[in-house]
Amino acid sequence: MKLRVFLPATDRPEDSARFAWKLFDARRELLRDDVTALADIPRAGEVEAVIPAERVLLARLKLPKVNASTIRELLPYAVEEKLLADPTHIHAVAGSRNTRGETVVAVVDRNWLRAMLDALARVGLRPTSAWSESALLAGGHGDWHVVWGPSRGMLVDDEGVAATFDHSQALPLAVRLAIDEATQRGERPEKVRVHTAENAPAPDLAAWSAQTSVAFERGTLWETLAAGEPAAGSINMLQGEFAPRSATSGWKIPRAALWLAGAIALLQLGFTAFDTWRLERERTVLEAQREAIFRAAFPEARVVVDPDLQMARNLAELKRARGQAAGDEFLVGMTQAARVSPNGVRSVEFTNGKLVTR
To answer: Phi and psi of 308, rounded to 5°?
Structure first.
């Protein structure tokens, strides 16, 4: 199952704060939804957090083509002019690059996001992804969206860039400015669908259409759209320092170290294989030399299976043929003493390898 938690826009989550949530089954079908305290939210194997649009700044920037780690370091300073805030207080994540070479960047207050994630963690909820609620309306082509609620509104363009505004029956300034900027980029929307939330009455869409020369049409309910899936390529804010930690996340090994360890292992295997080949070659040479020595000493031998054993047996046979003992030193000494003592031997003393007879 999957649990979707909608984070409130408040500065700090109080103990009594209530969170909207939706629970989905394995097929992403909505099972139930509610607005409750954190402790009463059901648990699920997958948890995702939805950040309110007023807490996320989405901007289009022209960024240099560098690696991802460098981009993460540069982003807070790249959006500094748009925020007029301390770069060290923000968390910025880059999305994909569009056809104009611009990159949509999502920015959120670092302390606010940390406080929200800590509040979820205290009740055992650890999201693996977090994205702006505008991602639920992104992905169109000249088809923009407005969510119209009792107290606030949200405009979302094709790329998911959102602007929020206070509720007013008149055409919101944020909507007019967004359409003018899109016109300058050559991306003026063909129509804007207006979705109502919390039973809010729809504004005068005909008047809005006349003022902007863009067709404003009645859409559906925001509560229905909020149960959908975010657009492909939506920016996941849980990256960098906020990336979910796995059981092995504390054992992060630099890629260079992994390459070095692999190279050392390959070299060790290579040296071991070479040493084995060298020793095997030396053994073959020595065995050939041993067999050659044996054949030189006993040329009549037809088959050589074990030169050492065959040499010992042949040597013993030669000694016996010449009247020499073929056993140990004691037996050899006794044989010689018997030959040189015509009167016999009365006593025998054998010490330290020496045989004395009387």
So the answer is: -60, -50
Indicate if the pLDDT at residue 130 is higher than 90: yes
The predicted-structure confidence for 253-279, as pLDDT tens digits, reads as follows 677 888 888 889 888 888 899 989 999
Dihedral sign (CA 160, 164, 170, 175): negative
**CA–CA distance, 93 with 107 (Å, rounded to integer):** 7
DSSP for 243-256?
SPP-TTTT----HH
The CA distance from 90 to 112, in Å, is: 9
pLDDT band at 320; cut points 50, 70, 90: low
Task: Establish how many alpha carbons lie within 13 A of residue 12's alpha carbon, considering only the half-sphere containing its beta carbon.
Answer: 2
Specify whether the CB–CB gap between 297 and 304 falls below 8 A.
no
Query: How many Cα atoms within 13 Å fall on the side-chain side of residue 109?
Result: 14
Whole-angstrom distance, CA of residue 8 vs CA of residue 21: 11
Beta strands in the chain (DSSP E): 2-6, 18-24, 30-37, 46-51, 56-61, 90-97, 103-109, 129-132, 143-148, 152-156, 162-166, 191-196, 215-221, 348-351, 354-357
What is the β-pairing status of strands 30-37 and 18-24?
antiparallel
Helix (H) or strand (E) holding 330: helix 329-340
Cα distances (angstroms) measured from residue 121 to each of 51, 126, 128, 219, 244: 16, 5, 12, 36, 11
SS3 39: helix
Q: How far apart, in whole angstroms, are the C-alpha atoms of residue 224 and residue 228?
A: 7
| Predicted model pTM | 0.64
In a 3-state reduction of DSSP, which class is residue 311?
A: helix
